[in-house]
Amino acid sequence: LLTLHNSTVLLPSMQRLVNEFVHLFSRRAFVHWFVAEGMDEDEFGQALNLITDLRDLYNQVTKLPPASSDYFPSVCKPIGCVKKFNCVALRSTIMTQYYMSNPGTTDPFVCQIADNGV
């Protein structure tokens, strides 16, 4: 069962995943299986970069100031009909919201992390 949890509690799991990947890849463990199936070895480095970038993003969000009632009006702006994933800073958590709206509506809005330059 997979659940989405709006928390940065994923950081230790991500770090453990990175550590295990680096350990196994440094020993070239199981690489031959993936290469034999057509995967390029450069893709391993790209995958490591993606997960470390995601981990760093979660790390940055934990350092954001706590949310207050007057924080959101300055950060959130209406952008119309949204059909993509967007990260929203809430206290020390990161939240992925998916807005699916009918074409032509302008109800949904996306909170963008604007104050810290992310």
UniProtKB/TrEMBL annotation:
GO CC terms in record: microtubule
Listed GO MF terms: GTP binding
InterPro entries tied to this protein: Tub_FtsZ_C, Tubulin_C
Source species: Echinostoma caproni
Keywords of the record: GTP-binding, Microtubule, Nucleotide-binding
Protein name per UniProt: Tubulin_C domain-containing protein
Gene3D superfamilies for the chain: Helix hairpin bin (1.10.287.600)
Family the UniProt entry places it in: Belongs to the tubulin family.
